[in-house]
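Hey, can you fold this one?
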Amino acid sequence: MPDSFPRQQARTRRFGLGSPRSFSVSADGRRVVFLRSPAGDDPLTSMWVFDVGSSGERLAIDAAGLSAGGPETASERARRERVRERAAGIVSYSSERSARRAVTVVGGRAWTVDLDRGGAEPLDLPGGELFDARIDPSGRRVAWCAGRDLWAAELDTAGAVAHGSARRLAGEDDPAVRWGQAELVAAEEMGRREGYWWAPDGTGLLAARVDETGVGTAWIADPAHPQQPPVPHRYPMAGGADAEVSLWWLSLDGRRQQVTWDRERFGYLPVVTWPDAGDAGPLLVVESRDHSVAAVLAVSPATGTTELLAERSDPCWVSWPPGTPDRTVDGALVWAEETDDTLRLTVDGAPITPPGMQVRSVAHVGTSILFTASTEPTTVECWQWAPSGLEALDRGGVVVAAAAGGATTVIARRNMAAPGVDATVRSAGADPFRLADHSAVPVVQPSVRITPVGPDRLQAGLLLPSGHRPGTRLPVLVRPYGGPGAQRVLADRHAWLEDQWWADQGFAVVVIDGRGTPGRGPAWERTVRGDLAGPVLDDQVAALHALAADESDLDLGRVGIMGWSFGGYLAALAVLRRPEVFHAAVAGAPVTEWRLYDTYYTERLLGRPDLTPEPYERSSLLPLAAGLRRPLMLVHGLADDNVLVAHSLQLSQHLTEAGRPHSFLPLTATTHMPADPEVAEHLLVMQLQFLAGALGATG
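Sure. Predicted structure:
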């Protein structure tokens, strides 16, 4: 008997298993390293190699053959949570410059992987609970975090730790101080998940010292197991103290030097990168707490001094693409500039991308620059810039990953035509090679109409039940994210699978990207500054009515809305503020009171609550609780360390005090996104039962 869609989606971790991912290319372009599990329902990910010009891929190490050193450490779990990792086995790795050797951590034990011959050897690394072990670019050393400390060791020719070479580079007895690790807002919001960076020659590294003395503590409890003590979690709430982050050069010969900059003015350290080309040294991005100024600094590790290379300011905030800043092989600075309608790449201050092309990320910088960009919001394309000009390498779908080295590029894309990931290796003098994709074939076949609607040309997707007969009126289910940082309306078949399943249960499904979402330029994203409720909700209503005017089978007398995280906030907001439009809602892990969310994300959008309380009052759900008159289901993981369960608990308390009935589904031992396949499967069905009952859907 074939799987139902909820079971298939849960077993395949949302159809992410079996696809190639996490690509790296050797500096000479001769080798591609990547991860992949053997089947679409097998979560155990292994490491693979493709040698350019060879006949096919080969398995470097099967994760099933690696014995873990013990249960996954709390630090490992936290790192996995920050990237929403749901697979097992080898889920991350580092390789040296020539891609002949790699290091990975599985279950608290580090391994060196021989990428020439295959196979792996365990590394005997001291220091306690081990995580984030990485090889240096030269392949001669390894560094790792253990507890709150940072360690390093020499590797011998066989890839083992050289006798007596392991040493603690940095560490303190103070339990509030950690070395070589990213603080929460860096890992969750800035996209910086590392806390140390090897020098290209492996003679030392830059390391972050994170002092969380002033940061408030959130206690994550497991009420289902009251015998277990709550876990302290340093969480900087909006308006409160952030971690104090400093940066240090740690030479392997024992020398130590602090890197200096105006930390009073620039309290955030969003980016640290050490270009491999030449001897120009590391680059930093430092940022003011109010996000209005950001600067690029060049670092001299030996002296700790910094040189200002570029500075930009904006009354709202400054943006730059992930992967920048960097340097070309001749030392030119790759950075960005913003106009009202475009985020553009620059080389030594001169724009190299045209107006209207929204740069999404930079994948590689060498003699040329490999980057992704959107020329219209629903696609993410791959482009290459060289002094001779721009070249489109992949267009028409959504590029999910890109990597390069030498004359070789890897581009992984999804599109509307076929399921799975198309990951193709292209190299000068060799035929293109497509890496195998073993992901499961979904049991649903999405059919979506993507169209811009209304005067603001809001991007919207509409899905009807398979075999829908015109003239049959359908309840409507709006499924947005709808807020800063994420899009839902993309030319990606994979993105519409669950939406089609909902449609096949008897709904007309509507997905809308409104103001604040990426892909349409800086001015569009900044329209939500100071108000996270009004613009995003107004756009959902406007687009819904525009679609209904064109599609008469949408029954606007039966409209539900559901979402997760910011989408959960938007769903609850919709039934609280616009009950004449929305008649039922499922709000998953919603932010209900923005004072309880983290500093970096929230203050960027709303300012500091102690200085500008009005935006927080406008955007909070708690004052609206007494007005609830539509069915509302709250769903929240009790172990969520990103959107704390306090958000749903406080809204539920306000609703109860006002005498407003609602449903609350707590998920035990669940973080921000349900990871347990059984929970994920049955949660989908329970949400369907709730909405079908509230709206009268008949699938």
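The first strand starts at residue 21 and ends at 25. Let me know if you want another pass with a different chain boundary.
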